[in-house]
Write a structure and sequence with these properties.
- The structure is a homodimer.
- Helix content of chain A is about 60%, strand content about 10%.
- By secondary structure, chain A is mainly alpha-helical.
- Among the domains of chain A are: about 20-80, Orthogonal Bundle (Arc Repressor Mutant, subunit A); about 105-134, no CATH class.
- In chain A, a hairpin with a 2-residue loop joins β1 (about 65-70) and β2 (about 75-80).
- Chain A is elongated.
- Chain A binds a DNA duplex through α1 and α3.
- Chains A, B: InterPro entries: BlaI_family, WH-like_DNA-bd_sf, WH_DNA-bd_sf.
- Chains A, B: Keywords: DNA-binding, Transcription, Transcription regulation.
Amino acid sequence: MAANVGPGSGGAGTERISEAELAVMEALWLTSPQTAAEVCDAVCTQRGWSIPTVKTLLSRLVAKGALATKPDGRRFLYTPRIARHDYVGTESKRLVERLFGGRAAPLFAHLAESEALTADDISEIERLLQEMKK
Amino acid sequence: MAANVGPGSGGAGTERISEAELAVMEALWLTSPQTAAEVCDAVCTQRGWSIPTVKTLLSRLVAKGALATKPDGRRFLYTPRIARHDYVGTESKRLVERLFGGRAAPLFAHLAESEALTADDISEIERLLQEMKK
DNA sequence: ACCTTACGATTACGTTTGTAATCTGAACGG
DNA sequence: CCGTTCAGATTACAAACGTAATCGTAAGGT
């Protein structure tokens, strides 16, 4: 029953979420709570998965403390225990840490160079910079 | 030349580099070529590794096509087959793809919010933006 | 009271990763 | 020549991951 968020504990979201697990999280971040079957509806065809796969991933995510469960009759409703916002922030920072020594500017330079920046991105970033200076 | 870089081939750097392997690559990006022992000098104490570990990682990186070897007497000299610049670019783009739907602006917003942006980063980014507009 | 069925739980199994120990063969010291 | 030593190569083995089949059980229909 959920109470336990992980062996070493440390709060929700301490443990790493794998690529496949992320797809499940995304579905639940989009709408939650959902049953396993509903999550499967959302991801199975897209990823070529079968229901057992989704159930395994759900269980692992619960074990990792990334999802909470609430019994609903005889099945479970799954809900994220960590906000997508937080997850994404942590992962972004991890990348900047790992690859750019914690400096964001070189990352930006790379994205610029590889044309991963659309015109919209650029003006949006300018806007954010303006705002930060206030 | 460059002939066979791996079973499925696809050019150097096609296969994913793991976290531990990355430490080895970093050492070789810093200075190369190096022998296994030299790489160990560079990373073993830092990561708490022993020489066999480094050798395993080197072998796996060679198998993945990320490193080239040149015999030097009875040992090997290892050299990166992919530039750090390229690796970092690919990984950055992958993150933006996976977490931000390919848009860089939200990533930037996250970094800004989490104070992962130093004053230096900000002015550097402004400079880059200026340059892009030309 | 059954039988089916729809759940979660348990088990499975190959691959990748982290972290090594051991084996094998060649070079070097004597 | 012969043993020690130092390479790379082979083997090891547990944890995490990707992907699932099977088991057990409780709910619902009849």
